[in-house]
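So, read this over?
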Amino acid sequence: MTPESDDGSGERSSGDRGGTDGSRVASGGGVTPDAHGDADADADESLPADLVDADESLPADLVDAVVRLCKADTLLVAMDFDGTLAPLVPRADDARPLPASAAAFAALADLPGTTTALISGRALASLRSVATPPGSTLLIGSHGAEVWLGPDAAPLQLDEAAAERLDNATSVLKEVTDHFPGTSLEHKPAGVVLHTRQATPDTAAAAVDAARTALSQLPELYVTDGKQVLEVAVVRADKGDGIRVLREATGATAVLFAGDDVTDEDGFGALGPDDLGVKVGDGHTRARYRIGSPEDVPALLQAVLAARKAIRTGRE
C-alpha cells in the first residue's frame, strides 16, 4: 500500500516524485533517501528484528513513515476505537479491541516520551467499558465533546437550553426506533445516536430519511452520518478538535492517528506534515496512508512500538 496524495479531485492517488537533493520523495510527503542520502538511509539496517518482521505485513513506505514519526521527542499515539482497535460488531456493547492491538497499545503507553489516547464517537463511559484502556491513556469521547485528561478532568455539563434540545432530539429518534425494526438508540452526554446496523438495508435507509426529516424541524442540532449510524449532537465538536486538544495538553511534536469512519476525517485534517494519518479500510480519506482492516492494526502498533523502543534506546 502506498501513500495517498491528493490529485485535486478530492480522491487520492499514489506515486513517487523526485526530490531536489538526490532523494526520492514519497507522495505521502516523507523523504526516503537513496544510496547517497543522509543517515536516514541506514534506518532499515538498524531496525530491531520485530520491526523488520513488520515490513512483511505492512507496506514498506508506511514502515518508513513510522520510523520517521518515532524520532519525535514527544509522540502522541491516538487511535479511534470501533472499526480500528476493535472490529465492528452488530451490538456496540459487544465491541472489544483485538488482543494484539490492545497489548501493543498498552506497551506504548509505558514508553517514555510517548502518550496514548483514544478518540471515539462513543460517550466516555461507554468507551471505558468496552476498551478498558491503560490508566494513563487520555480519552476523547462524543467526537470531541467529552475530554478526559486525567483524574481532575471535569465531566461535560450541558446548559439548560442544550439539555432541552437534546431531550427533543431524543424524543424524535425514539419515535423512529419505534417504527423501524432493528434500529436502536445510544445516549450520550451531548448527543444521541440512531444505530441501524441490525436493520435491513431498506429499513435502515428509511429510518435515516425519517430521522433527518424530523430533526430538520429542530434548531441547533449537529447531524453527522457514520457507518450505519446517524449522530445527533447539541455541542459542536469533532475529532479534529480532539487532536488539537491532545496535542496542546501533551506537547506532542508528532502525532499518529488511525481511524476508519467518516468522522475520523476531521482528525486527519488536523494533522501536520510531521504527523502520520492512517485510514483503516475503504473509502475516501485525507490520510496519507491506508491499511485494510482492524486486523492490520496490530502490525501497525507493533511497528510503532518497535521503532519507538529502538530510537529511545539509541539502537537506531
